[in-house]
Design a protein that fits this description.
Elements (H helix, E strand, L loop, with lengths): L1 H21 L119 E4 L9 H6 L3 E9 L8 E5 L4 H14 L1 E3 L1 E2 L5 E2 L1 E9 L8
Antiparallel strand pairs: 1-4, 2-3, 2-7, 5-6
């Protein structure tokens, strides 16, 4: 009985401890109430002031400045290269009369003497100044037709005021015609150079060069053609 009472007391104590420890405390009342905030509109802006009236200036207006000059840059153009063709070797003129010696010709001394060359005076077989020989030298070509006129001056070159001297070299065939022409010295104008050679080939006609026996042979002529710009003076 005593043991049962002690056990029942312990169980009751244990149950009381559990109830006390597991109990939840309720919260208290809220101390602060709900606060309300009021939103007010911003004040209107102040009225704008009237802008100041412009002040009229009675002074006369000045003239506008003259326009500025615009400088045009000079175009840089590389000059065309001038290609100078080498001249062909001159034709070998043989002696009209056979004679001793190792030269192809009979000589051309400028002192009088009894030689067989073309001296100033002598009794040789050459064409001396006053010798009594029976030989004769070569006859150079002679132009018999065609020329370059002032009216052939190119209009484009005249507007630019271009002139100059053109050095040319051309061949005269045995029939007296000029088959080709080339520029050996430029005038500085491609138009003048081309015009000079074109007119020489189209117009020039020659009596061909002849040897001592009257046989024509091919020859080369080197000469200059000058173009001059003539300005008409107005009175």
């Amino acid at each position: 009985m005593v043991s049962a009472l002690v056990s029942a007391g312990l169980v009751a104590l244990l149950l009381w401890a559990l109830l006390v420890g597991l109990s939840v405390a309720r919260g208290g009342a809220v101390s602060e109430g709900l606060k309300l905030f009021g939103v007010t509109r911003p004040p209107p802006p102040p009225p704008e002031k009237d802008p100041p009236k412009p002040v009229r200036n009675f002074r006369p207006a000045g003239e506008a400045a003259p326009p500025n000059f615009r400088a045009k840059p000079t175009e840089i153009v590389a000059p065309e290269p001038v290609v100078t063709m080498p001249l062909p070797p001159p034709p070998v003129v043989v002696a009209p009369v056979a004679g001793p010696g190792t030269q192809a010709s009979a000589g051309a001394a400028d002192v009088p003497g009894p030689g067989t060359g073309a001296g100033g005076e002598g009794d040789g077989f050459g064409a001396g100044g006053s010798g009594d020989g029976d030989g004769a030298g070569d006859v150079p070509p002679r132009r018999v037709g065609g020329r370059i006129r002032d009216s052939d001056y190119p209009l484009a070159a005249g507007e630019e005021g271009v002139g100059g001297t053109v050095g040319v070299r051309f061949v005269v065939e045995v029939d007296g015609r000029v088959p080709s022409c080339e520029v050996t010295r430029s005038s500085g104008s491609r138009l003048l150079d081309d015009t000079t050679c074109r007119l020489i080939v189209q117009r020039f006609r020659y009596r061909p060069a002849q040897d001592a026996r009257g046989r024509p042979f091919r020859s080369v002529i080197v000469q200059n053609e000058t173009w001059v710009v003539r300005e008409e003076m107005e009175e």
